[in-house]
Amino acid sequence: MSIPLLKLKKDSRLYLLLFIFIFFCSSAWSQTHQTVSGIVTQRDDNTTIPGITVSVKGSTTAISTDVNGKYSIRASNGTVLIFSGVGYTQKEVAVVSAREN
Questions:
Q1: Long-range interactions of 53-57: CB distance < 8 A, separation 24+
Q2: pTM above the 0.70 mark?
Q3: How far is it, in rounded angstroms, from Cα 65 to Cα 50?
Q4: What is residue 21's predicted lDDT score, i.e. its pLDDT?
Q5: Alpha-carbon distance 54 to 89, whole Å?
Q6: Which position among 32, 35, 73, 76 has the lowest Cβ density within 10 Å, counted as fewest Cβ atoms?
Q7: 55 φ, ψ to 5°?
Q8: What are phi and psi of 49, to 5 degrees?
Q9: CA geometry: angle at 88 spanning 36 and 68, to 5°?
Q10: How far apart are CA 63 and CA 68, in angstroms?
């Protein structure tokens, strides 16, 4: 007679499979996304611009630059960041991984 090492009910097996699926999906997501950061400045005199909205195109992910014009946002390689603010021209910039440069 063999004794099973792990005896689970049907519901428990379903939860275990769900946990494994979520773990691997989150692991894959964290590998494809990176933190993109920088400072938004004016083109003519390089002064920083606070309050500019930085958003990931096609998603609801967005942040605003701080009082020093700095931002940090999670985005994957190849996505487009949109920089916009009242009184400024909107600009779109593609995210390129530092490993590809």
A1: 53/82, 53/83, 53/84, 53/85, 54/81, 54/82, 54/83, 55/81, 55/82, 55/84, 56/80, 56/81, 56/82, 57/81, 57/82, 57/92
A2: no
A3: 5
A4: 63
A5: 13
A6: 35
A7: -130, 155
A8: -120, 110
A9: 50
A10: 14
| Contact indicator for 57, 73 with CB cutoff of 8 Å | no
The token pair at 20 is 């494994």
| Cα 54 from Cα 83, distance rounded (Å) | 5
Over residues 65-74, mean pLDDT: 92
Q: In what order do the strands lie in the sheet with 91-94?
A: 62-64, 53-56, 80-84, 91-94
Residue 34: other Cβ atoms inside 10 A: 16
